[in-house]
Amino acid sequence: LYQEQVMRIANELAGFSLSEADTLRRAMGKKKKKLMARFSDQFIEGAQKNKVSIKGAKEIYDLIEKFAGYGFNKSHSAAYAVLSYQTAYLKANYPAEFMAAVMTCEMNNTDKIVENLEECRRMNIEFKAPDINTSEKEFTVVDNKIWYGLEAVKGLGGKVVDGILDARRDAEFKSIFDLSERIAGNSINKSALEQLIKSGAFDCFEKKRAQLVETVPTALKRGQEARKDKERGQMTFGFLAAAAQEEGETDDSYPDIDEWSEAEKLANEKQSLGFYLSGHPLQRWWPILKGYTTTTIEQHLEESENSKVRIGALVTKIEKRVMRRTGQPFYIATVEDMKQSMELFISEELHEKYGEYLVADAIILVTGKIYNRANGKSLRVERIIPMKDIPRLLTNDLSIRIPPENDDSDKLKYNLKNLLGSHRGNCPVFLVLSNGTSPGKRILVGKELFVTPDYELFDGIRNLFGENCLVINNAG
Known about the structure:
This protein has 4 domains: 3-74, no CATH class; 95-246, DNA polymerase, domain 1, CATH 1.10.150; 286-388, CATH 2.40.50.140; 391-474, no CATH class. The chain is 45% helix and 18% strand. The chain has 19 helices and 13 strands. It has helices at residues 3-14, 18-29, 33-49, 54-67, 74-93, 95-105, 110-122, 158-168, 176-182, 190-199, 209-231, 237-246, 262-273, 286-289, 297-300, 348-354, 390-394, 410-421, 455-465, and strands spanning 127-128, 140-142, 145-147, 308-322, 329-336, 341-347, 363-373, 376-386, 395-402, 424-427, 429-433, 441-444, 470-474. The strands form 3 sheets. Strands 4-5-6-8-7 form a 5-stranded mixed β-barrel. Helix 1 (3-14) runs antiparallel to helix 2 (18-29), helix 6 packs antiparallel against helix 7 (110-122) and helix 18 (410-421) runs antiparallel to helix 19.
């Protein structure tokens, strides 16, 4: 249905003049509800003259009013149809290029970049981290892979990126020292270099990120000295170093320090990019955590209202709000798993009880009921358990699958007995002896080998018998 058809209905069914019908059309186009309402009586009266019942006329006008919320004229609709077809064609036939263009348009919107990154994964498009020698200013495609745009790295302005690209025209950068020496003027500073390192843009230099961050002050100093010497027209140490590098000799030195932990690496990535790219804090824990959940955030969208669910998630944000009608405080927490995010509704009473667990980057298990909001589904929280307490509070018993090739190994039996004995507690443990073709017999160990479940125990069992050997029967 188009606006022109509504004009025809008003003209022929309700006796509107063409001028009045056009005014009605414009009222629809500009969503002017008051003007639409004013035409209601005229429409019903006119329709009655054409032998349409009052009820029928009201129903027809109600449909016209509803249509006003989304209706367009023919030319407008045709333009949208052409644009939609062109967009669909590009996405279907040039998927990597299309997604790179979309991400470039949303370069300053982290949420949109994350959303489009998930779409790239769904479409099996490889997505590469920023690279100082490959990435351009915007998101680009090389060999059917999308490379992260340098200007999307947080804290890098257009001037910094332009300086990097200008210096890179002649040759790739060989090191952080080479980059600092070749960039003109003062277009790069400590903060910009650190952001590039944290984002992974200097991984091509094959140095630890922790080493590179510690090297930043020295690299900047060498860059400043190189520029001063160049201004004086002298042969610089920078030129000598570059020549030495080509011959395999270099005086570039890096501190002998440990690399960041995986958690530090991911936290720094999020700080520089706005999201986790190379991994996710939940990844390390997910094989165990999922055993205590009833659904993922993505799956919860399929659940009906008031369904009780339990999800494992990472806290990203917590906000205090106030009920408009009652002035009662409440809290909204944003959480995410490795695929999607959602909001939790937390009453003031529950926040007093669980508030210490609702901090950024905390991993929690949340039990609650689904409820529908205007902007989607949320979870009304009933209980929150911090990561460290989940195994102890929610494990009924453990089953350990013993592969057929290991069921007669004395060494493994000895190691398992020691492992269980070092975590003594009240949780029953079953051994499942498989013959390779059937599930196998389930044998309860002696009470002296009952355990207190924790992540160290779980890791120990998986190290002995493999990733998929452990089955957790949770408390529901």
